Amino acid sequence: MQIGTVKLTCNLAFAPLAGISNLPLRLLAKEAGCGLVYSEMVSANGLVYGAAKTHQLMNTTPEDKPLAIQIFGSDPVIMADAAQIAAAAGADIVDINFGCAVKKIVKTGAGVALMRTPDRARALLRAVRHAIRVPLTIKIRSGWDRSGDQAFDLVRIAEECGVDALAVHPRSASQGFRGRADWSLITQIKNATSLPVIGNGDVEKAEDAVQMLEQTGCDAVMVGRAAIGHPYIFAEIRDLLAGRHRPPPDIHARLRIMRRYAADSVNYLGERPACLMMRSRLGWFVKGLHGCSAFRESIKRLESLEQVMEKIDAYEKVLTATRRNYSGMTTL
Ligand SMILES: Cc1cc2nc3c(=O)[nH]c(=O)nc-3n(C[C@H](O)[C@H](O)[C@H](O)COP(=O)(O)O)c2cc1C
Q1: Could you tell me if the CB of 224 is within 6 A of ligand 1?
Q2: Average pLDDT for residues 235-243, to the nearest whole number?
Q3: Atom 3 in ligand 1: which residue has the minimum CA distance?
Q4: Is the pLDDT of residue 2 over 70?
Q5: Do residues 68 and 91 lie in contact, with contact meaning Cβ atoms separated by under 8 Å?
Q6: 283 Cβ partners below 8 Å, 6+ apart?
Q7: CATH of the domain at 259
Q8: 54 pLDDT higher than 80
Q9: Which of 183, 212, 241 delimits the end of a domain?
């Protein structure tokens, strides 16, 4: 799979997830074989007016590449400047958010609001296209309402403006995350454009990704929520696409991944902020495991990396003992 000049090792992408898809989590996805990772959405205003926290969202390393940095905003001039800043910071691809339905973003005319203002969308894409040499992609919803019409209009505009690929999350703005993603819209968009189409929405397990590729004909699959706490879903999808079934990682492997995530987060954010984050984030990784509620309770006051490791070690002992007692009945 190729997006403009960027060649991907496989056609799997980790979705942009605000507050979640930071460098440590992206690195786990990459390690599991994900072909393309996206940054959290980054405010174009924040980049142009120099907010340090906004710039930090673009931190990257060679193992993180290729990286799509997603920017959001509604002013073509500011978006063009922000796209240049993102490219200079190491974006292999600049992606524009046409899907965020959060009220405070929509009321500034950004995110999915751009899908109902096609003239502004065109001006914005033209300005950004002129400003950068790296590939330009967009991530869209089905539109403002359920008709899906705005998606087709935007795809035509994207082609006209030299966009290199698009990701489609087929839910309308009004749907938020409710109901099911309408994969038939991915098929229709794929049939209506020559641009590479990345399908997204409701891939919960490896089988869903394979089904999305087969059913919609999309060029690549993007996984969001299912990869949080389960980044090795990318390895499972890759194996399934190669005709092999990969068993889920055993408890020791899962806890090893958690330790990596915690240690990388401390390196990336500093000990105190990382520990505050780990108080909720580590809970993602133990979903479905025996005693996960007690583990979640035990990490609510984490203060240091040492404590994080102690809690994980203690939980590993609980899981190992349970497995011994119930001869493999623990849910993995
Ligand atoms: C917590 C959260 C944060 C998200 N942040 C972004 C974002 O920054 N940019 C974006 O384009 N989409 C964002 N999304 C949407 C996802 O990228 C994705 O389109 C959506 O979750 C559907 O895919 P999934 O079913 O695989 O999760 C976010 C979704 C969630 C749940």
Answers
A1: yes
A2: 97
A3: 17
A4: yes
A5: yes
A6: 229, 292, 295, 296, 299
A7: 1.10.1200
A8: yes
A9: 241
